[in-house]
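Entry: FkbM family methyltransferase
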Amino acid sequence: MSRLKNMMGAMVAGLFPQLRYAVRAYSSEGEDLILKRIFHAQEEGTYVDVGAHHPFRFSNTYLFYKMKWRGINIDPMPGSRKLFQKYRPLDTNLELGVSATRQELTYAIFNEPALSTFSADKIREYSSNPQYRVVRRQQVPTWPLADILDQYLGHTHIDFLTIDAEGLDMEVLRSNNWVKYRPRYVLVESQPLELTRIEDSELCLFMEEVGYRIFAKTYYTYFFKNIHTQ
């Protein structure tokens, strides 16, 4: 069997030589490859993924799971924990939303699950595109990020925190305890902004207030570095 697999691999490489140079990314914009460059010499680590969506689709953390890192995946989609438990059983997988206080909020579930959101503004924005629509709404429990970390992290060291909360990113950030939980890097998906206009960004100003500076950027995702990390 191994000989046959080697022969098939050689055949594919011969027909498509460009595949030899392909680099696999699971993130939507290659964020995991930037993170891999940042942590290239680190064999073990911890991540926290808020708005994790799926075990590997559009995932900033799955590449690291494959590298034997471990962490917490948080997503409010009803039924999402079952899928994470199947494909990411060594992580802590939580079916929760994140908000300023412990409460229940109405979660709008779109026909494209990646767009599902608590945000009324995002519901209007996404629904303006005729190919997207809300298929159902459901009450979902939400906790502050600090409460989740207090209960499930088990220690205070996080290598990177990634947030994709579909319009509620600032609420997620403000719900953290930035004295106790200070990831080395924080990734936040937000609206595109030219780097020359960073001083106009609520996100960037807030992150600077809590001791982080912009480090890198893709089209939608901002990377912030803890300036107090030695």
